[in-house]
Structure to design on (256 residues):
């Protein structure tokens, strides 16, 4: 009988050890595999236009708050070749904040009288096309996967692209920019800066920051002038040293 009691006690202790050994690792594993909540991007555009139309590519959960009490989602947009186009008409001509929510990868918002564009709260943006607006500043420091940026015909006096290491194309035509550093843009192959305020020394400094393709099978292209009798160029177009760029594997072309 005594042996039987000892056996029962040993069996009970063994069972507790087995349960403890199983439960604790499971709890630890559960803690390790916990995933963070997925983030959703937000873009804010301030427009003075009475009729607004823009296109986006990205997830199908994209929504738009037009700022006048009206909201919509992709079911209200037209769809063609991977892009959702949203359109809206305002009842009066005042400034409205248009808020786009969702993981947008491409945004095409040209010529809609934007006075402000906030893309600092979205990390998925790879293409941004915001030409022909009234932007005076643009912060793209959070858009680290940006590969193409068109911001021509705005009112920018400066642009920091030091955080955009994947940038391949940059179009800054017809702004008021006086200097530019592309030393961090090692993937850049097309740069267009027609009609800005670069002096000869500023252009030479820019050329020195270009990616060096001198030992590559391919090179980069700079658009510095345009083929037009009334073309507006940079002040330093004629006096800059283009050989600085050529020695780094870059060629010059004119806008047609």
């Amino acid at each position: 009988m005594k042996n039987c009691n000892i056996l029962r006690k040993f069996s009970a202790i063994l069972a507790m050890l087995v349960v403890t050994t199983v439960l604790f690792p499971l709890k630890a594993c559960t803690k390790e595999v916990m995933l963070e909540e997925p983030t959703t991007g937000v873009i804010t555009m301030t427009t003075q236009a009475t009729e607004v139309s823009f296109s986006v590519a990205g997830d199908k959960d994209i929504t738009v708050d037009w700022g006048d009490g009206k909201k919509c989602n992709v079911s209200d947009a037209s769809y063609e070749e991977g892009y959702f186009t949203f359109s809206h008409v305002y009842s009066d001509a005042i400034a409205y904040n248009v808020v786009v929510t969702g993981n947008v990868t491409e945004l095409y918002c040209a010529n809609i009288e934007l006075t402000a564009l906030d893309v600092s709260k979205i990390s998925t943006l790879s293409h941004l096309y915001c030409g022909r607006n009234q932007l005076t500043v643009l912060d793209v420091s959070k858009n680290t996967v940006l590969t193409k940026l068109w911001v021509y015909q705005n009112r920018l006096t400066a642009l920091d692209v030091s955080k955009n290491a994947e940038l391949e194309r940059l179009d800054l035509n017809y702004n008021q920019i006086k200097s530019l550093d592309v030393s961090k843009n090692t993937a850049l192959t097309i740069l267009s800066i027609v009609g800005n305020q670069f002096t000869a020394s500023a252009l030479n400094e820019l050329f020195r920051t270009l990616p060096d393709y001198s030992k590559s099978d391919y090179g980069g292209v700079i658009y510095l002038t345009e083929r037009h009798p009334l073309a507006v160029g940079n002040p330093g177009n004629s006096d800059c040293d283009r050989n600085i760029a050529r020695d780094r594997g870059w060629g010059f072309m004119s806008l047609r």
Q: What stands out?
A: The mean pLDDT is 88. The longest strand covers residues 51-58. The radius of gyration is 28 Å. The longest helix spans residues 2-32.
